[in-house]
Structures are given as structure tokens and as C-alpha cells.
Amino acid sequence: MHHSRLCAILIDCDTANLGEAARFWAEALGRPVDPDHPGSRGNYLMLQTPDDEPIVQIQRVGHESRVHIDIETDDIPAEVARLEKLNATVVDRLERWVVMQAPSGQRFCVVRVQRPGFPKNANRWD
Prior knowledge:
Blueprint: E1 2-13, H1 18-29, E2 44-46, E3 55-60, E4 66-73, H2 76-85, E5 89-93, E6 97-101, E7 107-112, E8 123-125
Parallel strand pairs: 1-3, 4-7
Antiparallel strand pairs: 1-4, 1-8, 2-3, 5-6, 6-7
């Protein structure tokens, strides 16, 4: 048995100026940039979001700009296996997360628990 839920919306930006991209999304979404958040480092800037909402993270990438979601779980291998049964495929296994692709082509990540209150609002999978 494990749990999973929507964790984050990541806005992937193929840009040299991550601060400028984050400022745009902060204004567009009405959520200020949170430079003091532990997740704001290197190629990542966090927007301020309430604990009961998904995280919004602006990420500098070296591929085409796009948006992807993260699914957080208390058991990454079990969640990946569950999603593979739904015909998702593993694209890359990294140290702390797994990049997957939906049958319809969208990329997403399966990550360890990130937000407080887990497993509140999470699905329970047997």
C-alpha cells in the first residue's frame, strides 16, 4: 500500500534569465517569488503558495519550454509500477525522482513527499 497526490506544477523555461521568467509567472499567477524558500536554488525559483495548494516552481531547462506536473508519493517504486500498468513509460531514473511519459506524450515526474500534511488529500493505492 502506498499514497500519491499532485505535488507541483513546474514551469520549464529555456531561458538564460530565470529571474525574469519567475517575475513574469509571479505576476501572471498573483504569487510572489519566494527567494528564501529552500527550493529556490540554482536552476529553480519557487513562488509563494499556500500549504494546501500545489507547489509552483519555475525551472531553467535546456529543452523546449513547457509545463509539467510532479506526483509526490511515499513509495516511488510502487507509484512508478502503478503508472507503468497504466501504460506510462520511464524516461529517466534519477537519484531522487523518476521522469515518466504518459501514453499521450506528456512528461511528468514522480517525486518523494514535498508538501506538508501528506497524506492528506492523497490517494491510497493497494
